[in-house]
Amino acid sequence: MSAALTFAVFAVALIAAAVFFLFFYQAWRRERKLKEPFPKTWRRHLKSQVPLYRKLPRHLRQALEQRVQLFIAEKEFYGCDGFEVDEGVKLTIAGHACLLILARSYSDFDDVRSILVYPDAYHVRDIESDGMVVRESNEIRAGEASSRGQVVLAWKECELAAGNLHNSHNVILHEFAHQLDYLDGTADGAPPLSGEQAGHWQHTMTTAYEDLRHSLSHHHKPWLDPYGATEPAEFFAVLTEAFFQQPDHLKHKQPEVYKALQGYYRLDPMNLSDEPARP
């Protein structure tokens, strides 16, 4: 074989390998992972630590298990301040997080790369500069999300969510809702939408957000966690918590908001038996 022919064969093989890696490797790797049986111990843990899992019909349980399987295989978990991330911690976080994409594509979490877990609420030093004025503050946080694909969680708060389906707060749902919000590049309270759905979302959410802020300004008891009034991104995250944790309350108080969230998440937490499983 001549040198030119050898080079040509090598070049073609290299291009083929690059094409496979860029366009097919991820799907191939995930398909292989999903052929592995879902461990029975994992299933028992989800039943214990993800209350909504127990309410899912068989096809949605299987959909959640598949997403959990991929999530644990692909995401990096790190313990902070001496916290040890074991299998149970991973399953609890993955189980709650994947509820958000239960009827959506798993690829919605492709940009999530790492989860940092603290044992409890943690301190964050924040520095803001406004011209010549520099402000420094120390905040205590239970979780946060970034556009760089990083989610930070306080395990004590995660445990509270795992213990009660109807708890109004779920830090895992909250922070992973921010990750969905980041899919269009910025957390602005509006995840990627198009057409009529985008128009309905914009009108409905803007009206509901201003209604919440108005209620708080007049010292009325709000229909939602007041933290949702701080900015549109937090409004979406707090609404996501309510949608999965207290759907009956949300639907009663804000039926149009509930409808918008139902359209985005492609499921109805109050009637899960009729929901199709999606790839």
Low-confidence stretches: 16-24
SSE series: HHHHEHEEEEEHHHHHH
Gap from first CA to last CA: 46 Å
CATH class: Alpha Beta
Query: Largest sheet, order of strands side by side?
Result: 1-2-6-5
Radius of gyration: 21 Å
Write down the CATH topology. Collagenase (Catalytic Domain)
- Our count of helices gives 11
**Looking at this structure, what is the CATH superfamily?**
Collagenase (Catalytic Domain)
* Total number of domains: 1
Number of strands: 6
**Average residue-wise pLDDT:** 87
Helix content: 40-55%
Inertia-based shape: globular
Largest sheet: 4 strands, mixed
SSE class: alpha/beta
Keywords:
two-stranded antiparallel ribbon; Collagenase (Catalytic Domain); 279 residues
Description of the structure:
It is a single chain. The chain is of the alpha/beta class. The protein has one domain (39-274): Collagenase (Catalytic Domain). 52% of the residues lie in helices and 13% in strands. The chain is built from 11 helices and 6 strands. A 4-stranded mixed β-sheet has the order 1-2-6-5. The protein is globular. The N and C termini lie far apart (46 Å).
Draw up the topology in text.
Layout (H helix, E strand, L loop, with lengths): L2 H21 L1 H10 L5 H10 L8 H17 L1 E4 L7 H11 L16 E5 L3 E9 L2 E9 L1 E3 L4 E5 H9 L7 H11 L13 H23 L14 H14 L1 H7 L1 H11 L14
Parallel strand pairs: 1-2, 2-6
Antiparallel strand pairs: 3-4, 5-6
